[in-house]
Amino acid sequence: MTLSGEGASRTGSLELSLVNRSGDPVPGLGTTLRILTGQDLHLAATVRPVYGYRDAAIAPYRTATQTVSFRVPETAVGGPVTVEAVDAGGSKVTFKGTLG
Fold first, then answer.
1. CA triplet 71, 72, 74: central angle to 5 degrees?
2. Is 24 exposed, middle or buried (0-12, 13-18, 19+ CB in 10 A)?
3. What is the torsional sign of CA 28, 85, 68, 35?
4. Contact 44, 37 (CB under 8 A)
5. Which of 23, 35, 69, 73 would you call most buried, defined as having the most Cβ atoms within 10 angstroms of its Cβ?
6. What is the pLDDT of residue 75?
């Protein structure tokens, strides 16, 4: 995850990679990202990334990677961040770090 900019909010980006482990194409990324900042896990951004174009499918047994952009408040810089990736079925993967 990277941050850039100054002032009231910063632009951030991260790389999201998803694997299609089935023998059929999977339509789109089907994942929602929640960017939570601070010790109290304040919701800074919710992002629903799109792969290529809206109806693009991920081929069977392939990986798709997409750059996802978001904004966080200046006060979040230098503090903890949690990124939750939630798929359409409700499965969640959590990543933790520090916004530097």
1. 125
2. exposed
3. positive
4. yes
5. 35
6. 79
Token pair in block for residue 93: 């993967």
Q: Which residues pair with 66 in a beta bridge?
A: 16
Q: What is the pLDDT of residues 3-48, one digit of tens each?
A: 777 766 788 888 888 899 999 998 877 889 999 988 888 998 999 8
Within 8 A by CB and 6+ apart from 91, the residues are none
**What number of residues does the chain have?**
100
What's the pTM? 0.79
Q: Which long-range contacts (CB under 8 A, 24 or more apart) does 21-28 make?
A: 21/61, 22/60, 22/61, 23/60, 23/61, 24/60, 25/57, 25/58, 25/59, 25/60, 26/57, 26/58, 27/55, 27/56, 27/57, 28/54, 28/55, 28/56, 28/57, 28/58
Instruction: Supply the DSSP symbol for 40.
Output: T
